Amino acid sequence: MSESEHRHVRVAVIGSGFGGLGAAVRLRREGITDFVVLERAGGVGGTWRDNSYPGCACDVPSHLYSFSFAPNPDWPRTFSGQEHIRAYLEHVADVFRLRPHIRFDSEVKRMTWDAGKLRWDIETTGGNLSADVVVSATGPLSDPKVPAVPGLDSFPGKVFHSARWDHGYDLAGKRVAMVGTGASAIQIVPSIQPEVARLTVFQRTPPWVLPRVDRAIGGAERSLHRALPFTTQLRRGLSWGIRELQIQAFTKHPDELGFVERLAKRNMARAIKDPALRARLTPDYRIGCKRILLSNTYYPALTQDNVDVVASGLGEVRGSTLVAADGTEAEVDAIVFGTGFHVTDLPIAERVVGAAGRTLAETWKDGMAALRGASAAGFPNWMTIIGPNTGLGNSSMILMIESQLNYMADFLRQLDVLGGRAALDARPSAVNAWNRKVQDRMRRTVWNTGGCTSWYLDASGRNTTVWPGTTAEFRRVTRRVDLTEYQVLRQAGRARRDDNDVARIREGA
User: Domain of life here (predicted)?
Assistant: First the structure.
């Protein structure tokens, strides 16, 4: 599509991962075709495009980790790999005819609210445009975080993050350092261990690891799903229901997780016979405080002769020598960082300038907060998918994304009913009330009481990432937009709630 064709659109969607593609499908289903999807890369897929490291796979069952409106009867495994999930997203883009709306190689550099015209002016690397509404679907797992390790700049070997895997660099026969022991690292370690000369794992905090109940889905089973679609729905519903029941232990009764800890310890004991190594790998916090990891191969890989586990974070780099915080040294040829992403300090927030001329990052300097995980005060007609406190610790984020798409659709309907040039800006009082309620509920959850430091917490120790309830509850609270939680903005200099507009919409409801 040419820039001139889309100088102004009704809706601009940022990102083409699950959130962005889901938003695009929902817009088309709502009869809205005047929209564009701005994607900084050259293809769709988001985190499933960027993360292509060896062993990359999902830790949520495939039939639950997919859109309800686009079931896939042909998942090859119960837990599918990155290549299959990315192929699924490519399929969604094709089936729902989204590609004409996608503008690739168009990274958003800045978005600025124009209060006079009630629109967003957007600067991208592929040209500029404006939009009535912006839906930000950049996702929290999109910008890698590499720690500022003293001396790293002088390291003579190869350095890359797991989400920016260098497939042109051959690890065979090399001495490799794996920094971090999170969800990516436990997949990478067993995948590269057989080929490297030596693998040194720098573990700042050991994870809890449970067995991964994964298997191939046979041809007969897939044929059944194709012939009888309700069997796919049944499978999805069962996976969902089990996780809905589990969430009570995470959010209300963390002590009940002790049984799961015993299972995890037995899983470790089966693979790790060396008591000293087992001691280094045993967490000292309640299971669930950090994301519970699933693997059948991680612990066995750590017992191999060419693997060393350093129970301390990387503290310094001296030439090709890596020095842990406890003084342990290792000579390596390559460093792979599995150190996560900018989650509570989203880089996109630096590029969004709201009604008061402040960036979203400035507004969120004391912690992220958005009404129902979607709308930030002072940023009219701007919504985020997978916003603050919408993350999950045990289920599928696709469920949360679809709930937020419901909210987005009703947001656009409300603008239609208002008529003319109008915008909705979340009231600070509504955002604060919502955030207080969420944080009050967060106090007794395992994520806050479990005794760990995780990426769920921001710099001040507040959990601005996870949703402290069930996915069914979140769907209920995002089903409709409550106009009393918003200011209605009109053109011609009016920036206030129009009570007549709100009353008129209520009477017509």
Answer: Bacteria
